[in-house]
Amino acid sequence: MTKEKEIIKTETKKPVAKKSTSTNKTTTAKKTTAKKTTAKKTNVKKVEVKENKTKAVETVQVFETKTSQEPKVKKEKNSKKKKEKLKLNFWKMTYMWFPMWNMMRKAKKISKKNIKSPGYFSEEYCYNFVKKAAKRILYVSDITVKCEGIENWLDRGVILAPNHQSNFDPVALVALNNFYLQQPLAFIAKKELWEDKKFGRFVRLMDCIPLDRKNPRSALEAFKEGKELVVDFRRSLAIFPEGTRSHSQEVGEFQPAALKVAQMANAPVVPVTIINSYQVFSKNRPKHIEIKVVFGKPIMPLKHISLKTEDLTKNTRKVVIENMEKWADKEMLLDHKIINKINLKNREDFKKTGKTKAKKAKDKKKIKDIFKVVD
């Protein structure tokens, strides 16, 4: 009996053992599956990390390329600024530094005062101040402005269409502007000049119109303001049809809609040729520069009203190029100093003959006459 009981016990124990093994297997299987799933998850995470790393590398590369491009642009801008520095005569600046500094200080003061209370300084005073500043700049930088055909610059509302070689072109035109012969000058200029510390002071003293070259609507507004200046105030409006500086003697292409103001205002167009002004800011600049300005025959409104604006710009460009080829190597007699001497008395003589009368010699004793031996 005891043996049979022991056998039954062993038989009963065996299935229990089997159950435990099955449960262990299930638990181990679950664990292995869990491990596999965790491994899969870890693999997925690793892949995601790799993808993120690749994205991070791409972003770093893009950022590096952007940062590497930015200083190049800054360097280019700085190089342009360095090229356009005006070289001044050292010996003249030794005794002209204070008048030049005072001129810059006064220009800032006048522009600020006119912004706060417009009309505090009269237009005549502001224009004369700008003209005096232009003369001083020419004197200190050893530059003379010679001209030909200044009688073509009519004493009425006119549009001047000059070629654009450098930033010194407006200074040359202002130096030749005599209020006894022509109307005061106004410019349509780029908007960035108003933000400039040096030029912005003088631009605000004149009837200048800002133009945003990126925004086409600002061009229409500028043309409307230009029309008012020419028609109502009889100003001589200067527009550079090239749009940008050429930095050379070559004449660039004129923008077709640049002279639309002339047709809007029914005003004559005077083609103007500026020669040698690109040398002012060049590296191999000569000590003394002669800027030549040629005023072509005006295109009257009866001729250009029926024309398209494109044809008008082509005709003006053709005249500018012809005068460039004609007067590039020729000498000119009239100087900005001679033109500024013209007043109400000798204005009619200048219009007839193109020259001012020489002053009569005064009958005064000289030092040489004192030591002469008298018989």
Automatic annotation (TrEMBL):
Residues 158-277 form the Phospholipid/glycerol acyltransferase domain. Residues 1-44 are annotated as: Disordered. This is 1-acyl-sn-glycerol-3-phosphate acyltransferase. One of its GO terms (molecular function) is 1-acylglycerol-3-phosphate O-acyltransferase activity. Residues 1-14 have a biased composition (Basic and acidic residues). Keywords: Acyltransferase, Lipid biosynthesis, Lipid metabolism, Transferase. SMART domains: PlsC. It comes from the Bacteria. Residues 32-44 have a biased composition (Basic residues). GO terms for biological process: phosphatidic acid biosynthetic process. InterPro entries: Plipid/glycerol_acylTrfase. Pathway: Lipid metabolism. The gene is plsC. Residues 18-31 have a biased composition (Low complexity).
